[in-house]
Amino acid sequence: MKRSDFADLMAFAVIAEERSFTRAGNRLGISSSALSHAMRQLEERLDAKLLNRTTRSVAPTAAGERLLARLQPALQEIGDGLEELADEHTGPSGLVRINTHHSAAALYVVPKLQALRQTYPGITLDITTNEGLVDIVSAGYDAGIRNGEQLAQDMVAVRIGPDYRTVVVATPEYLETAPAIAGPQDLVQQACIAYRMSTSSTLLRWQFQRGSRTFDVAIKPTFITNDMDLLIEATLQGIGVGYLLREQVATHLACGRLVELLPRWSVRHTGSFLYYPGRRQMRPAVRAVIDMLRYDGRA
């Protein structure tokens, strides 16, 4: 391969990502006209049209998409190799992208950020929260975090926290005037705060367990939100009864701002795991983040 071919292929990958000659040129330090000319020469050498151009945008053709699918992993490997060489002298550094659900980010990632910054000041952690399942490889993430039962079989998984337990909570002030709650069936008479799943738009089921029997209870929500922080705040304000993970409200339970209800019906869920593809060579920065987040077995 000629050196010019490699440079043009790398430029093609950036154009395909940015969907713009102007933005790609800004990243590469090349004028958009020079970049467009280089792409036409590349297409002539390959005898294939790689990009569809309009006055407003540019996008890969079917042939361009096939080339990109082979090209991106190779460029990623080259970039990782160069970064690994640099890390031998300066320590782990660079951007580490993780896709996670909100609860794990709040409970297990954010509390470790200060230690991560002090130990590895060259690492930048980029966290995206998403309640649904994401193909982390095709989306360009280094790793993902999900509950254990949601993990794909071909991923390497590292536990980052203990198992979860559900909890029904309310403020003492709310309970003073609310109907008595002796069992899950009494929740139908309560003002309940429901969580709407962002991915499916359905309401999170209020699930309970007694012995080996697991069952759902239909509630009548007085307030619905897809923001977990807002749900917790509404519960703290005495709007109604909340259904959460115990870990999310542990400090509020400890200080008495919230009261746990129906503890004998609590459901246990497999805890959160960080996962990543085992076939990809791991950058030192990613390994450092994994080791920092790894669960040490202490509750």
In short:
The protein is α/β, with parallel strands linked by helices. The protein is built from ten helices and 15 strands.
Q: What's the structural blueprint in terms of helices and strands?
A:
Elements: H1 3-18, H2 21-28, H3 32-46, E1 51-53, E2 58-60, H4 62-90, E3 94-100, H5 102-109, H6 113-119, E4 123-129, E5 143-147, E6 155-159, E7 164-170, H7 172-177, E8 192-195, E9 206-210, E10 213-217, E11 221-225, H8 228-236, E12 241-245, H9 250-255, E13 259-261, E14 268-269, E15 272-277, H10 284-293
Parallel strand pairs: 3-4, 3-5, 8-11, 8-12
Antiparallel strand pairs: 1-2, 5-15, 6-15, 7-12, 7-13, 7-14, 9-10
Helix pairs in contact: 1-2, 1-3, 1-4, 2-3
Organism: Salinicola corii
Family: Belongs to the LysR transcriptional regulatory family.
Domain HTH lysR-type: 1-61
Structure description:
The protein is an alpha/beta fold and 299 residues long. The chain folds into 3 domains: 3-76, Arc Repressor Mutant, subunit A (Orthogonal Bundle), CATH 1.10.10.10; 91-161 and 271-293, D-Maltodextrin-Binding Protein, domain 2; 164-269, D-Maltodextrin-Binding Protein, domain 2. Helix content is 38%, strand content 24%. It contains 10 helices and 15 strands. The chain has helices at 3-18, 21-28, 32-46, 62-90, 102-109, 113-119, 172-177, 228-236, 250-255, 284-293; strands spanning 51-53, 58-60, 94-100, 123-129, 143-147, 155-159, 164-170, 192-195, 206-210, 213-217, 221-225, 241-245, 259-261, 268-269, 272-277. The strands form 4 sheets. Strands 7, 8, 11, 12, 13 and 14 form a 6-stranded mixed beta sheet that branches. Helix 1 (3-18) packs across helix 3 and helix 2 packs across helix 3. The model has no long low-confidence stretch (mean pLDDT 89). GO terms for molecular function: DNA-binding transcription factor activity; sequence-specific DNA binding. It comes from Salinicola corii. One of its GO terms (biological process) is DNA-templated transcription. InterPro entries: LysR-type_TF_proteobact-type, LysR_HTH_N, LysR_subst-bd, WH-like_DNA-bd_sf, WH_DNA-bd_sf. Keywords: DNA-binding, Transcription, Transcription regulation.
